[in-house]
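Protocol step 6 of 9: fold each sequence in the batch and record its C-alpha cells directly after the sequence line. For illustration, a two-sequence batch is reproduced in full.

Sequence one:
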Amino acid sequence: MFCRKLAALGSLYDTLRARQYEFSLVRLWLFAMQIVSGMEYLESRRFIHRDLAARNVLLASKDMVKIGDFGLMRGLNQEKDHYIMSAHRRIPFAWCAPESLRIGSFSLSSDVWMFGVTLWEMFTYCEEPWYLSFMFGMCITALMLFREGERLEKPPDCPLELYAVMRKSWACNPADRPSFAQLTGFFLQG
C-alpha cells in the first residue's frame, strides 16, 4: 500500500520551471538522491513506476521531494522481469526507453532510463526532453537516434560525473543500465 501525503509546494516540474526558488547544485543533488532512494525502494519490492518525470516528483518541503503519481505503476512477479503494455495506451514518449517505445516493454531498467531523463530535467530547469523530435511525433526517428547513440545534451550547470550517470542510465541495452541500488551507491559517494 502506498500512502500519499499532501505536497503543498507542488511538483518539482512547476517549481523548477517557474524558478520559484534558486536551487544550488547541492540541493539538486539532494533531490536526485531522494528520488533514487524512493526508486530503490520500489525496485526492492519489484514495482515499476513507468512514469517517472519531474512532473511526478512532489516537493514535501524546500529540502525534500517525494515520488508521486503511481497510476501507471505495475508489480512484477518473480517469473517476469518486465511488463508489456497493452496496445493503444498513452505513454510519456520523451521519457521512455527504446524498448518501451519499440514494443511497449517496461522494466526496472526502463525506470532507470526515465530517472536519467528526470535528472536531465532537473538540471535544465525542466526544459522539454527531445522537444523537436517528439513535437512532430517522430517516435521512429527517436528510436533510430537512440540506436546511433544520440542522447540528450549535457545541461550547462550539470557536473560531468552526474552527466556520466545520465549517459549510463540511457544505455541502449537495458542490461547495461545500472540498478537503482547501484545508483544509490553513486549518490552516497558523491
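Sequence two, same batch, same settings:
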Amino acid sequence: MNLFKLKSKQRREQPERLIQNSVIEYLQVLQNQGKLFFWRQSNTGTYDKNRETFLKRKKLGERNGVPDILLCVGGRLVGFEVKAPKGYQSTFQKQFEADLVKAGGCYYIIKSLDDARLALARHGVS
C-alpha cells in the first residue's frame, strides 16, 4: 500500500470529516431533546490490500451511495450526504437520492452546519 497516497487522501477528507463531526454533535443535542432520531451510516467497504482498492458490496440488501447520516424526523426518512465545500455526489449517491425521494423521503447535500440547520428547519426542527 502506498502510504503517501493514503496520507494525501486523509488530508483531503479532513474538511468533510470536520463538517460531519459538527453536524453529528448538533444532531445529538436534538436527539437528546427528543426532536429526531439519527445514525451515522458507515459506507466503507472492505479494503483489498493486494488490489489497493475497496471491494464492491455484493451482499443482498447492501447498497452503494447511502448517505453519511440518516435521520427520522416527524416520521419521514431524511438523508444527509456530507460533502466538503467543493465536493460532489457520486453516481451511486445520485441514484440513492432519486430512489429515496421517489419513496417519499428527503435528501440533502450538507456542506456546513448551517446547511444542516436549514434542512432541519424545513421539517420544523430547530
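Proceed to step 7 once all outputs are recorded. Observation for sequence two: The first helix runs from residue 3 to 32.
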